[in-house]
Write a structure and sequence with these properties.
- The protein has 181 residues and is an alpha/beta fold.
- It has one domain: 3-Layer(aba) Sandwich (Rossmann fold), CATH 3.40.50.
- Helix content is 37%, strand content 20%.
- It has 7 helices and 7 strands; from the N terminus they run E-H-H-E-H-E-H-E-H-E-E-H-E-H.
- Strands 1, 2, 3, 4, 5, 6 and 7 form a 7-stranded parallel β-sheet that branches.
- Strand 2, helix 3 and strand 3 form a beta-alpha-beta unit.
- Keywords: Hydrolase.
- Belongs to the isochorismatase family.
- Pfam families: Isochorismatase.
- GO terms for molecular function: hydrolase activity.
- This is Amidase.
Length: 181
């Protein structure tokens, strides 16, 4: 089974206090295509790995207050909203990586996941830490270059190269993933 892990496509990081609106808007249609594909194929799990912070979280010292648990800012953007299917998991996170302190590893084991497809924000930060978590757990890692973005001023290609060279991620495109499955 494959897990589409959608990282931090939440209101505060797309159009709110830490908005990356221009770059995020470019990847939304690609992520939507993958979500639709995953919903139509029973061998896919969809994981929404969303920032859902508490006041005392260390990230507050780096980024300031954002995506606070229970707020609208921590909700998945309207275009990608979960529909509540049995293969859709909402996995709130308080750290950069989707596996850190979330119980996601156990969920993925229970579904027999062997491959992670990582999309969302930001290639150089939370996607990178999620790739590390996938790598450490032995999952094959696939990253569509048209389904991830970085903050302005950061080199997305360098971030993708890091994922490829350090975590053995396969860098591809959304259409290639869909065509292969």
């Amino acid at each position: 089974m494959k897990a589409l892990i959608i990282v931090d496509m939440v209101n505060d990081l797309v159009s709110g206090v830490l908005a990356n609106t221009e770059d995020a808007n470019k990847i939304i249609p690609q992520i939507k295509k993958l979500v639709d594909h995953a919903r139509a194929n029973k061998d896919w799990l969809i994981v929404y790995a969303n920032d859902a912070h508490h006041e005392e979280d260390r990230e507050m010292q780096v980024w300031g207050k954002h995506a606070m648990e229970g707020t609208e800012g921590a909700q998945v953007i309207e275009e990608l909203k979960p529909i509540g299917g049995e293969r859709e998991i909402i996995s709130p996170k308080r750290f950069y990586g989707a596996f850190d302190g979330t119980g996601l590893e156990e969920v993925m084991k229970s579904h027999g996941v062997t491959e992670t497809v990582l999309v969302g924000q930001h290639t150089h930060c939370c996607v990178r830490h999620t790739a590390y978590g996938s790598f450490m757990r032995g999952y094959k890692i696939v990253v569509p270059s048209d389904g991830v973005c970085v903050f302005p001023g950061v080199d997305n290609q360098a971030a993708l190269d890091y994922l490829k060279n350090i975590y053995l991620a396969e860098i591809t495109t959304t259409d290639t993933i869909i065509a292969a499955n």
